[in-house]
Amino acid sequence: xxxxxxxxxxSYKKLVFAMSIRIGADEKLLSNAIESFEPIxxxxxxxxxxxxxxxxxRTIEPKxxxx
Length: 67
Hints:
single chain; mainly alpha; 2 helices; elongated
């Protein structure tokens, strides 16, 4: 896993763990907080992954007829 992705996933896990300790037994509150955060986090994670493939090297990737 690329380092940026490892840091993203690690940060997410730490945040969820910290929230579970802070919120404690209120499962509904914890669940709502995670549900509101996850789409934003994972959409940004997709953008990070996309950046690895968007700017491919022209010397490595073959040209096709459309370029």
